[in-house]
Amino acid sequence: MSTNIIEARDICVTFGTGSHKVEAVKNVSLTLAAGEPLGIVGESGSGKSTLARVLAGLQTPTSGQVYFNGEPLYKGHRSYTGEARRQVQMVFQDPYASLNPQLTALSAVSEAVRIHNKCSKSEADVKALELLRQMGIAQLDAVKKPRQLSGGQRQRVSVARALSANPSILLADEPTSAIDQSAQAQLLNLFRGLLHQGLAIVLVSHDLGVIRYLTKRVYVMKDGVFVESGDTEEIFNHPQQAYTQELLASIPGALGAAVRNQKHAS
Hints:
By secondary structure, this protein is an alpha/beta fold. The protein has a single domain, classed as Rossmann fold, CATH 3.40.50. Helix content is 41%, strand content 26%. It has twelve helices and twelve strands. The strands form three sheets. Strands 8-9-10-3-11-12 form a six-stranded mixed β-sheet, with helices on both faces. The chain has a four-stranded antiparallel β-sheet with strand order 2-1-4-5, with helices on one face. Helix 7 packs parallel to helix 8. The longest helix has 16 residues. It is globular and about 50 Å long.
């Protein structure tokens, strides 16, 4: 039986005060099992990226708590202290913004390797090159700066940098939205390979096709709350909530047509 490595309980995130107060996440709870591919799906502004940052320890919740291996993640203003900091890594939507434009791909990953593994520069370079190779980045491209790489290559460099910590959880926030379809397929196949190695992945996306391809369980988010959750295929085949049905009906192709026809029939 799988053990939950993350459990979020009653998470609320509020920005601003008074009449300018915005409740981005409202009393949300979720679990993530070891090695699980989990999806969080919703439209832009639904609160899913804010929740992902809370799970990553990058956004302190207004109330509620996240537990990592049974221990509270947030202790005052600190989160993921000590060894736990290595275990949860995040890949952001815009790989260009998340990479130092002055560093080559090799330098960016090698720097992360040195930080997480306390090794020499030469040892870090060897490890970094291996990580980049695993992500499909050739040595010729490893010495290029972000502006010289394609969007798909930059995103795979970001994944390699995240993996330098040897994490148990990878949080991926809209990782395919800034790259073309061919690069999306390459990245998702890389994620599948990482899942087979035992890595847990939380995939945050508005793209239901991406969610269906990679995840086994999904939370559907709207206006800061989960409106539906459960087995991915069950929700895709038998959505219970009107919002989920609308999301599915908006998908181009056969799946969206099937949902639209089902709605008309009912």
